[in-house]
Amino acid sequence: MKRIVLFLATNLAVMLVLSIVLSLLSSFFGINTRGSSGLLLMAMVFGFGGSIISLLMSKWMAKRAYGIQPIEQPRNEVEYWLVNTVKRQAEQAGIGMPEVGIYDAPDMNAFATGANRNEALVAVSSGLLYSMSRDEAEAVLAHEISHVANGDMVTLTLIQGVVNTFVIYLSRLLAGIISNVSRSDDEESSFGGGMAYFAISMVLELVFGMLASVIVMWFSRQREFRADAGSARLVGKEKMIAALERLARGHESQLDGTMMAFGINGKTAMTELFMSHPPLEKRIQALRDMR
User: Fold this and answer.
1) Which of 43, 68, 139, 254 is the S-S candidate for 239 at Cβ 3.0 to 4.6 Å?
2) Which of 136, 144, 205, 224 is catalytic?
3) pTM of the prediction?
4) Residue 144 catalytic?
C-alpha cells in the first residue's frame, strides 16, 4: 500500500509539473497546442519529461519504496565486506563510489539506480546477503557496478523517452483522424465527439504501448548480457555463472518497474518479448561461450 500511494502521489506531481512546463513552452514558442506541432510538443514533454524526472528521482523513490537503509558507517562484518567490495569494484570500473544500502526482502536480488554514474545507489536485499556465498554475492555486486559503469540507467531512460513520445503522438494523431472521419460520416453520432477521441486515443496508446515495450525490453535484455560480461571481467565468469545458477534455484524477484530492469533477478513473463531480463539459462550459456 505504501508503494502504491507513493507511486500515485509522485505521478500526480509529475503530471502537474509537466503540464506547467508544456504551457510555458507553448506560450514561449507561440505554438498552438491544438495543432500538429502542439501535439508533437506535448508528446515530447510528457514522453521524455516523465522518464527524465523518474530517473532524477530514482534514488529517492527506491529508498522509500523498498525501505532501503543506506550504510553510512558499517556496523558489522557483513556491512564492512559489502561496502569494501563495492568500493573496490567501483575503482576497477572507473566510477565514483556509489551509495550502498540494504533492504529487507526474502528474495535474492540487488539493483542499481541513479542519474549520475558517479553518484549511483547500489541496493542489496537481505535475502541475497544471507543466502548467497561471498563469491556469488561479489559477482552480483559486480553486475550492478557494470550497469552503473555502462550508463544503463541513462540509456534506458532515453530509449523510454523516445518510444513514449512516439506512442503519445501516434495514438492521438490517429485518434483525431478516426474521430474526424466518423463525425463527417454521421454528424449526429456521438462517436465522433470529444469522448470518442479520448476513448480511441486511450485504446491506441495501450496497443502502441505494448508494442513499444517489446523494443524497450529488448534493449534491457541486451544490457543484462553486457552487465553479466562486465561482472565476469571484474570477478571472473565462474563466479557470475555460480551466482546465476544460485538465482535459478532461488525465489522470484519482488522488484517492480524500473528497479526490476536493473536488478539481477528479473520476473518471469508469458513470453520472452516482454521480459526485462533474458532467461537465466541463456545468460549462463552466454557466459560459458564468452572468451
Assistant:
1) 139
2) 144
3) 0.81
4) yes
